[in-house]
Amino acid sequence: MTPLSFPSKLLESAVDEFAKLPGVGRRTALRLVLHMLRQPPEATDRFAGALTELRHNVKFCRLCHNISDNDTCTICANPKRDPTLICVVESIKDVLMVESTQQFNGLYHVLGGVINPMEGIGPQSLHIESLVERVIQGGIREVILALSATMEGDTTNFFILKRLKPSGVSVSTLARGVSFGDELEHTDEITLGRAIVNRVPL
Questions:
Q1: How many structural domains comprise the chain?
Q2: CB of 103 within 8 A of CB of 82?
Q3: Which domain CATH number covers 30?
Q4: Are residues 20 and 74 in the same domain?
Q5: pLDDT by residue (tens digit) across 44-58?
Q6: Do 75 and 53 fall into the same domain?
Q7: How does residue 180 score in pLDDT terms, banded at 50, 70 and 90?
C-alpha cells in the first residue's frame, strides 16, 4: 500500500496522534482529522477540551477503583445499591457491560486486569488486597467473580478464592454461559445477564 503523502506537517502530526488509538489505522485517522477540520473551530475546541479535562481531572473511586468524577463513584454512593454484594471485574469496561444487563444491583470491585505472568502481571499489580480488606471489614455476604473465561481469568479466580477463604464469605463465579476463552466485553448482554443470575459457587 502506497504511504500517505501529506501536504501539511500539522495534518500529518494530527494523523499520527489519531493513528495511535486502538484499531485506528492511518487512513481512518486521516478521515477523522479531515472531519474535524470541517467542523467549526469551537467544536474542535470542545473535543480537545473534553479530552484534556478527562485526562487531568478524572478520578478513580477510593472503594471500587471504578472511574469517577469524585472520590467515591456514583454506584458506590447510591443508597439503593446492595452493599453486601460485590461483583469483581477486570476493567471499567466490564462494569459498563454488567450494568447494561440490568441484572445486578450490588457494588463492584475493579481489579485492573488479571494475573498473567507472561506479561509480568502478578497479584501485586492488581487491586486484590483492597478487595480482601473490603471483605474483612465485614458486611459482605457474597463476592461474585465476573472475570473473563480464560486461563488467566481462572487463575485469578482461584487466587482470590484462596485469599478470601479465611473470611468465610460466599464466593461465586459466572455460569459458563460465557464460553471458555471469551472476554467479558465481547459477550452479549443476554448471555452475560443469564450468567450473573445463574452464577455458581466457586
A1: 2
A2: no
A3: 1.10.8.420
A4: no
A5: 999 999 999 999 999
A6: no
A7: very low
Q: Which three cell numbers stand for residue 107?
A: 457494588
Fill in the DSSP letter of residue 200. Answer: E
DSSP string, 108-171: EEE-SS--BGGGTB-GGGTTHHHHHHHHHTS---EEEE---SSHHHHHHHHHHHHHHGGGT-EE
Residue 89 in domain: yes
Tell me the three cell numbers of residue 117: 505472568
Q: 171: how many CB neighbours lie within 10 A of its CB?
A: 19
Per residue in 82-93, pLDDT tens? 999 999 999 999
C-alpha cell at 73: 463513584
In this prediction the pTM is 0.76
Q: Print burial letters for 30-42: b (CB count within 10 Å at least 16), e (below 16).
A: bebbeeeeeeeee
Please name the amino acid found at residue 91. S
